Amino acid sequence: MEQQWKEYELGELLSYVQPTPYIVESTDYNDKYTTPVLTAGKTFILGYTNERQGIYTALPVIIFDDFTTASRYVNFEFKVKSSAMKILTPNTELVLPKFIYYRMQVIQFDHSTHKRYWIQQYSKIKVAIPPIPVQEQIVSRIEELFSELDNGVKTLQKTKQQLAVYRQAVLKEAFSQISQYVSLGKITDSRLGKMLDKEKNIGIPRKYLRNINVRWFSFDLSDLLEMRIEDTEVDKYSVIKGDLVICEGGEPGRCAVWTAEEPMFYQKALHRVRFTDGSNPMFYMYYLWFASQTGKLNEYFTGMGIKHLTGQSLVKVPVPTVNRINQDKIVLDIESRLSMCDSIEKTVDTALQQAEAMRQSILKQPFEGRL
């Protein structure tokens, strides 16, 4: 490190203000209001308030989560939601607010214990600080590189949005040519799973599917729970290969086809749909996704707050009907096109992860003398 750089404790460079006078009185936020309510975490802006008192105006500052040590640079007037933060301001002409903010982003700190950290620990961390002109140069270079990176990230995010549009277009094309529809109940036998009741359930503990285990087109089996199921209930409450499993609540209509050879049990929050006419269940899985994305499924939901797709409503849902040969062809075409989308999206997601890693690298370089 150059001799011009001098070491200070963070507490020597930053004084703190308690946020209590700036805490919002009501969390009835509205995007039409003008004053943002902030948190130092990932969410950052929790919402907007119309309260006129207790607005923090001495800018710029760094808001610091006293429990997680996350921080945000703020250059606009704001209020806060809770007292679980410190408002940090430079208390010396030796440091620029944005320079010390960037420096804080690369501090490695263990915050696994749930307690406040600023006063006793974090403020005592030592950092090397260069003269103001050097700080200005470093901040300027970081922001120049960040701007270039952000432009690339915007392009990647736009690509993801275009992929979502393309997926809908694929399904719209697949189903728009079909003119004949039938109620789902006409071609299926469906039932809800077993009620989870630890006091009343008897039998052998067996793994089962919950709503959260059913994703669109697939199952997440990483955290299966167990409930007691009697031998006499096995057929009644199990899904077998070829069954379509549909969420009754949560995200009503979300579904996947069970393709494993081994059966699996399921709870009451799920519908087991078994086709009685030899249909390809994948065909109807894709159609339900299309109906969900386009809002066609919504009119069959019940409930004012939390929506549900009850058994009575499910059997009434109109679905396209074509012969099995055409169903198979349509499924093959859909999967071919969606597979291409998935491949592109995987590449985009990898690039976004690399961009975030690059952001950290950009921040570290000036403090290691490499920028």
Set out the fold topology.
Blueprint lengths: L5 E4 H4 E4 L17 E4 L6 E5 L11 E5 L5 E4 L4 E2 L4 E6 L6 H8 L21 E4 L2 H45 L4 E3 L4 E5 L11 E6 L4 E2 L2 E2 L5 E5 L8 E2 L4 E4 L7 E3 L6 E3 L3 E6 L5 H13 L17 H4 L3 E3 L3 H44 L4
Parallel strand pairs: 3-7, 12-19
Antiparallel strand pairs: 1-9, 2-8, 3-4, 5-6, 5-8, 10-21, 11-20, 12-15, 13-14, 16-19, 17-18, 17-20
Keywords: DNA-binding, Plasmid, Restriction system
Pfam family, one: Methylase_S
Family: Belongs to the type-I restriction system S methylase family.
Q: How would you sum up the global shape?
A: elongated
Backbone CA Rg: 28 Å
- Distance from first to last alpha carbon: 13 Å
Specify the helix fraction band. Answer: 25-40%
CATH class of the largest domain: Alpha Beta
Reported CATH architecture of the largest domain: Alpha-Beta Complex
How many distinct beta strands? Answer: 21
Mean pLDDT over all positions: 94
Main beta sheet strand tally, sense and closure: 4 strands, antiparallel
Strand order of the largest sheet: 2-8-5-6
CATH topology of the largest domain: Adenine-n6-DNA-methyltransferase TaqI, Chain A, domain 2
Helix and strand composition category: alpha+beta
| Whole-number count of domains | 2
InterPro entries: Restrct_endonuc_typeI_TRD, Restrct_endonuc_typeI_TRD_sf, Type-I_RE_S_subunit
Pfam families: Methylase_S
Subunit structure: The methyltransferase is composed of M and S polypeptides.
Protein name: Type I restriction modification DNA specificity domain-containing protein
